[in-house]
Amino acid sequence: MDLKNKVIILTGAARIGLDVAQGLKSNGAKLAVTYFTSKPDLGDDVLYVQANLSKEADAKKVVAETKKKFGQIDGLVYMAANYPNQPWKTLTEKDWDSTMNTIAKSAFLMSKAAADEMVEGKIIHIADWSVLNQPYKDYLPYNVAKSAVIGLTKSLAKELAPKIAVNAIAPGPILKPANLSDEDNLEALKNTPLGKWGGAHEITKAVLYLLDTDFVTGQILYVDGGRSIA
């Protein structure tokens, strides 16, 4: 899909999402960007929609406002998520519901709302390299929610074929956390075959590839420096 003048909904334009947004714009896409609390600044040509995407009405509002402004929807890049540390001893039903709603339920609601208005198009979700094979301790709801996103991606690919392709990106060590100790940094690099942090633009390149290709659907693209095979 040539992105020039194509309309893409991007959920989440902070950190990695900011690089993705800039990559989409530089390739000629028209953007609708959602935010929950902090409105990004990507220029006056971008449509900004405040929304709680775990609410069906808000997901539909994003789609309706996008279609009203641009007249069409050609793609969805779903990046909104949280990453809460939730140890087993203090884990509650509220923690579970909050994380599942923010990650898995929201991805479904936004995908459903967008797909129902697409004639043809692409949907991209963000998964995680670790959740199926090496889930992190103390992140149980997150691990399950991101696993659900993988299942959602594959199921939607069947439901929406042949007009809409659905894929996911599973990032690995992309951005080095600001508070990461030298010891933990060395450990992360040791366990990553390519021996480095990828940087946000590696995710942008993956997004652009999945929007461009017309013969890939139902796939999970690992962008992890080989971490998943280490």
Account of the protein in words:
It is a single chain. The longest helix is centred in the middle third of the chain and has 23 residues, at 93-115. 40% of the residues lie in helices and 16% in strands. It is of the alpha/beta class and 230 residues long. The protein has a seven-stranded parallel sheet with strand order 3-2-1-4-5-6-7, sandwiched between helices. The chain has helices at 16-26, 56-70, 93-115, 140-160, 182-190, 200-212; strands spanning 7-11, 30-35, 47-50, 75-78, 121-126, 164-171, 220-223. Helix 1 (16-26) crosses helix 6 and helix 3 packs parallel to helix 4. The model has no long low-confidence stretch (mean pLDDT 96). The protein has a single domain (7-229), classed as Rossmann fold (3-Layer(aba) Sandwich), CATH 3.40.50.
Q: What characteristics describe this protein?
A:
230 residues; alpha/beta; Rossmann fold; seven-stranded parallel beta sheet; 6 helices; globular
